[in-house]
């Protein structure tokens, strides 16, 4: 085997980068992006829609303000997504009886069907991604991610990425 061939086969040592959260998350995100894009393409939805619709599915009647606070999107991006989803017939906005300034968001039957398809597709992706990873390790992974999100969320300035 030539030296060039051996060099290409050698793994690059990550050293402290293997414990560098931004570095590892950025790499994981890059590796996961094509899988997420395939689901979005199949269902003809844009970035941010799956999370927004899933939050509404889990919290029928959620206010638009609470929805924006629960996802890492700016309020303006959530407003844009909500209007687009309403125009597609996937969700409904209703004035809340308790505060007429706030909208309660619920999915339509078509929106519910879309979320059911998303969940099925994501379950397939998760099964593939976590093949061979013990359930306890999966649970720990998501528990720690949840702890980090809970810890960082109060310090966020609401300037998450737009869904544009």
Please tell me about this protein's structure:
- Residues 14-150 form the HTH marR-type domain.
- Pfam families: MarR.
- Keywords: DNA-binding, Transcription, Transcription regulation.
- The chain has 7 helices and 3 strands.
- With 164 residues, the chain is mainly alpha-helical.
- The protein has a single domain, classed as Winged helix-like DNA-binding domain superfamily/Winged helix DNA-binding domain (Arc Repressor Mutant, subunit A, Orthogonal Bundle), CATH 1.10.10.10.
- Strands 1-3-2 form a 3-stranded antiparallel sheet.
- Helix 3 (49-58) packs across helix 6 and helix 4 packs across helix 5 (75-87).
- The relative contact order is 0.12.
> Tally of extended strands?
3
Strand adjacency order, main sheet: 1-3-2
Cα-based radius of gyration, to the nearest Å: 20 Å
Instruction: State the helicity in percent bands.
Output: 55-70%
CATH-defined fold name: Arc Repressor Mutant, subunit A
Quaternary state of the chains? single chain
Question: Class, according to the CATH hierarchy?
Answer: Mainly Alpha
Say which CATH homologous superfamily is assigned: Winged helix-like DNA-binding domain superfamily/Winged helix DNA-binding domain
Helical segment tally? 7
Mean pLDDT: 86
Any idea how many domains? 1
Alpha-beta content class: mainly alpha
Q: Characterize the overall form.
A: globular
Percent in strands: 5-15%
Instruction: Give helix and strand order, one letter per element, not per position.
Output: HHHEHHEEHH
Biggest β-sheet, characterized? 3 strands, antiparallel
Question: Which segments are poorly predicted (pLDDT under 50) over 5 or more consecutive residues?
Answer: 1-8, 159-164
Please give the CATH architecture: Orthogonal Bundle
Give the terminus-to-terminus CA distance.
49 Å
